[in-house]
TrEMBL record:
Belongs to the UppP family. This is Undecaprenyl-diphosphatase. Its EC number is 3.6.1.27. Bacitracin is thought to be involved in the inhibition of peptidoglycan synthesis by sequestering undecaprenyl diphosphate, thereby reducing the pool of lipid carrier available. The gene is uppP. The chain crosses the membrane at residues 47-65, 89-108, 114-135, 193-211, 223-245, 257-276. Pfam families: BacA. It comes from Psychrobacter aestuarii. It is found in: Cell membrane. The keyword Magnesium does not apply.
Length: 280
C-alpha cells in the first residue's frame, strides 16, 4: 500500500469536504490540488474527482434526513407533518434536476476530455467571482424564504443555472446559490436548496462514472484510495454544512468572490509566467 498516495487521497478528501458547499468550485480546486500534488494519472484523477463528491453529498443526506424524508413522503402522498409544503420541495427538486441530467449525460465525456484542466478552471473561477460581485450588488425582492416555497418556475431556472457547473471552475453550489439569490430566494433557502439539489446530481454522476470507467481502478489499492478520499470528504463536509448555512444567512459571498478571482489569477500567472504545466 502506497502511504504517500493515501495521504494525498486524504488531502483531496479534505479539499472536497470544505469546498463542495462553498461557491468556489470543488471540482476546480480538486483538479488544481491533484495537479499540484501529481496525484495519480489523469484517468484515475478524473474518476476520483467525480466520485469523491459522493462523500460530501452523503453528509447532506445524513444531516438533513428528517426534512428530506418528509419531502419524499410529501411528494408521494401530498402531505407530511412538520413542513409547510413538502410536496412543493420534492417537485421543485425534480424539475431543477432535469436540465443538468440531460446536458450532463449527453456531454459528460466531452466535458471531461476538453475542460478538465487548470486553465479552464482559472478562467471560470475569475468569471464566477465577477458574477458574484454583480449579483450581490443587485437589488433583490425575496419571493421564497424557505426551500419549500420555491416555485416550479424558479426551480427550473435554478436548474438551468446548475448546468453551468458542468464547466470545471464554475461551482455547482455557486451557480445554484447565486442563481437562486438572483431569482429572489432568501440566502438560507438558496443554500439549503442547493445542498438538496446536489443529491440526485452528484449521486447520479458518481454512479454513472463508476459504471462507465471502473476499469481504470485496476487494483485493490486503487479502490482503497478512492474509498479513503470519499470517507474523508463525508466527515469534513458534515462539519462544514451547518457553518455555511449560518454564514449565508447573515453575510454575503463577497469574500468568496475575491478568493475565486485571486486563485484564478495565481493559476494563470503560474501557467504563463512560471511555466506551470497543464494536465491535458
Amino acid at each position: 500500500m502506497d502511504i504517500i498516495l493515501l495521504i494525498k487521497a486524504v488531502i483531496m478528501g479534505i479539499v472536497e469536504g470544505i469546498t463542495e458547499f462553498l461557491p468556489i468550485s470543488s471540482t476546480g480546486y480538486l483538479i488544481l490540488s491533484a495537479d499540484i500534488m501529481n496525484f495519480w494519472d489523469k484517468d484515475k484523477v478524473d474518476l476520483f474527482v467525480v466520485v469523491v463528491q459522493l462523500g460530501a453529498i452523503l453528509a447532506v443526506i445524513y444531516d438533513y434526513w428528517g426534512r428530506l424524508w418528509q419531502a419524499l413522503v410529501g411528494l408521494l402522498t401530498g402531505k407530511a407533518d412538520g413542513m409547510s409544503n413538502p410536496r412543493q420541495l420534492g417537485l421543485s427538486l425534480i424539475v431543477a434536476t432535469i436540465p443538468v441530467m440531460i446536458v450532463g449525460f449527453t456531454f459528460a465525456d466531452e466535458i471531461k476530455a476538453y475542460l478538465f484542466n487548470p486553465i479552464t478552471v482559472a478562467i471560470m473561477l475569475i468569471i464566477g467571482g465577477l458574477l458574484i460581485f454583480y449579483v450581490e450588488k443587485r437589488p433583490k425582492e425575496i419571493v421564497a424564504h424557505e426551500a419549500e416555497q420555491i416555485s416550479i418556475k424558479t426551480a427550473l431556472l435554478i436548474g438551468l443555472f446548475q448546468c453551468l457547473a458542468l464547466i470545471p471552475g464554475t461551482s455547482r453550489s455557486g451557480s445554484t446559490i447565486i442563481g437562486a439569490l438572483w431569482l429572489g430566494v432568501s440566502r438560507k433557502a438558496s443554500a439549503e436548496f442547493s445542498f438538496f439539489l446536489g443529491i440526485p446530481v452528484i449521486v447520479g454522476a458518481a454512479l454513472l462514472d463508476l459504471l462507465k470507467h471502473h476499469e481504470v481502478l485496476s487494483s485493490s489499492e486503487d479502490w482503497w484510495v478512492l474509498a479513503v478520499g470519499t470517507v474523508v470528504s463525508f466527515v469534513v463536509a458534515l462539519l462544514c454544512i451547518r457553518w455555511l448555512v449560518d454564514w449565508v444567512s447573515r453575510r454575503d459571498f463577497t469574500i468568496f468572490a475575491w478568493l475565486r478571482i485571486i486563485t484564478g489569477i495565481l493559476v494563470l500567472i503560474a501557467t504563463w509566467v512560471f511555466g506551470y504545466q497543464i494536465t491535458a
